[in-house]
Automatic annotation (TrEMBL):
<dbReference type="GO" id="GO:0030198">
    <property type="term" value="P:extracellular matrix organization"/>
</dbReference>
<keyword id="KW-0482">Metalloprotease</keyword>
<keyword id="KW-0865">Zymogen</keyword>
<dbReference type="InterPro" id="IPR024079">
    <property type="entry name" value="MetalloPept_cat_dom_sf"/>
</dbReference>
<dbReference type="InterPro" id="IPR021158">
    <property type="entry name" value="Pept_M10A_Zn_BS"/>
</dbReference>
<keyword id="KW-0479">Metal-binding</keyword>
<feature type="domain" description="Peptidoglycan binding-like">
    <location>
        <begin position="6"/>
        <end position="37"/>
    </location>
</feature>
<keyword id="KW-0862">Zinc</keyword>
<dbReference type="Pfam" id="PF01471">
    <property type="entry name" value="PG_binding_1"/>
</dbReference>
<dbReference type="GO" id="GO:0030574">
    <property type="term" value="P:collagen catabolic process"/>
</dbReference>
<dbReference type="GO" id="GO:0031012">
    <property type="term" value="C:extracellular matrix"/>
</dbReference>
<dbReference type="InterPro" id="IPR002477">
    <property type="entry name" value="Peptidoglycan-bd-like"/>
</dbReference>
<protein>
    <recommendedName>
        <fullName>Peptidoglycan binding-like domain-containing protein</fullName>
    </recommendedName>
</protein>
<keyword id="KW-0732">Signal</keyword>
<dbReference type="GO" id="GO:0008270">
    <property type="term" value="F:zinc ion binding"/>
</dbReference>
<keyword id="KW-0378">Hydrolase</keyword>
<dbReference type="GO" id="GO:0005615">
    <property type="term" value="C:extracellular space"/>
</dbReference>
């Protein structure tokens, strides 16, 4: 992932958090945002963006099918 894309993702996440807490939405890690980050959350779950939830639903396979199939369904152990 490029540095430019990482900066955009960070700014988007900061803006989403600022919107959630009702503080001015700047997308920049300012002093007010830092103060809200340091406060205890009292069991409030972390917020995830829609994109993160969508990525969890569409997990990628970690293997590739090669087209070969095992036709023997009766296995024995020696």
């Amino acid at each position: 992932m490029s540095t430019m894309r990482s900066a955009q993702i960070l700014a988007s996440a900061l803006a989403e958090m600022q919107r959630f807490y009702g503080i001015p939405v700047t997308g920049v890690l300012d002093e007010e945002t830092k103060a809200w980050m340091k406060r205890p959350r009292c069991g409030v779950p972390d917020q995830f963006g829609v994109r993160v939830k969508a990525n969890l639903r569409r997990r990628r396979r970690r293997y590739a099918l090669t087209g070969r199939k095992w036709n023997n369904h009766h296995l024995t152990f020696r």
